[in-house]
Design a protein that fits this description.
By secondary structure, this protein is an alpha/beta fold. It folds into 2 domains: 1-69 and 152-255, P-loop containing nucleotide triphosphate hydrolases (Rossmann fold); 87-151, no CATH class. Helices cover 36% and strands 22% of the residues. The protein is built from 9 helices and 9 strands. The chain has helices at 48-56, 92-96, 98-102, 108-120, 136-148, 166-183, 194-200, 228-231, 234-252; strands at 9-17, 23-32, 37-41, 63-68, 77-80, 154-158, 186-191, 203-207, 214-219. The protein has a 6-stranded mixed beta sheet, with helices on both faces. A 3-stranded antiparallel beta sheet has the order 2-1-4, covered by helices on one side. The longest helix has 19 residues, at 234-252.
Length: 255
């Protein structure tokens, strides 16, 4: 898979107010460059997931604009939800093939794409298994494969590992970085974990409590690949401390 050229997501003064009058986002502004791994970090209810849904086109902004400068705003965008949302009556392969079937485009090329996607997440041997036969981590890998099967230029991930135990979460963090380095797609990753955001990201956008906006942008220039040695390093601890302090300031509303 070749790296996309010129794909950039731009949010300009995006606001969102729900029908009941609750403001979720206020003047949310940021850019994401092609191939970049960016995390949106903030407390529950700060509008992180709302922002992701607006970027995906699943919800409309009340104000502002979302732009893609690659000319393919209607092109494939992968979305990984908090829950794997797999169809329990369908095999893993059939679940991964769903984006093609919804477009009535499930032919030989689509079958090959499903095979590749399953191989990338280590589920080739479970193509004919059913979701109930998989562990929580394997179900989430199937969800990631489904999001990646159309080879999207943009991958949106909404706290995909939050419900998993710590050991499984660490393992999937490692696997996610390996996959990202292989395909080098643009990733916007929502999390409320400082430790996860520092381990995964090139850049972290710290958000304020609702209505959410960007309080701080923090670069994480540590080299990839990142492994358990990075997770236990003084460098990692230093970045975690910096991000934690910014998050605490955002919660207090102080610069």
């Amino acid at each position: 898979m070749t790296e996309p050229a010129g794909v950039t997501v731009r949010l300009r003064d995006v606001g969102k107010t729900f029908d009941n009058g609750t403001p979720a986002l206020d003047a949310l502004t940021f850019d994401v460059a092609a191939g970049e791994f960016v995390s949106l970090l903030g407390p529950s209810g700060c509008g992180k997931s709302t922002a992701l849904r607006i970027i995906a086109g699943l919800s409309e902004a009340s104000a502002g604009a979302v732009e893609r400068d690659d000319g393919v705003a209607q092109g494939p965008t992968g979305f990984v939800f908090q829950d794997p949302t797999l169809m329990p009556w369908a095999s893993v392969a059939a679940n991964v093939a769903l984006p093609f079937k919804l477009r009535n485009a499930y032919g030989e090329a689509a079958r090959a794409a499903v095979t590749r996607a399953l191989a990338r997440v280590g589920l080739s041997d479970f193509a004919e298994a059913y979701p109930r036969q998989l562990s929580g981590g394997m179900r989430m890998r199937a969800s990631i494969a489904r999001a990646m099967v159309t080879e999207p230029s943009l991958l949106l991930m909404d706290e995909p590992f939050a419900a998993l135990d710590e050991i499984t979460r660490f393992k999937l963090n490692h696997e996610m970085l390996t996959l990202w380095q292989e395909v080098r797609r643009t990733v916007i990753f929502v999390t409320h974990s400082v430790f996860e955001s520092v381990f995964l990201s090139q850049r972290i956008l710290v958000m304020t409590p609702r209505p959410g906006r960007v309080f701080a942008e923090i670069d994480i220039p540590a080299a990839y690949p990142r492994d358990d040695r990075f997770r236990t390093s003084a460098e990692y601890a230093g970045y975690c401390r910096q991000v934690s302090e910014a998050l605490a300031q955002a919660m207090r509303g102080t610069p």
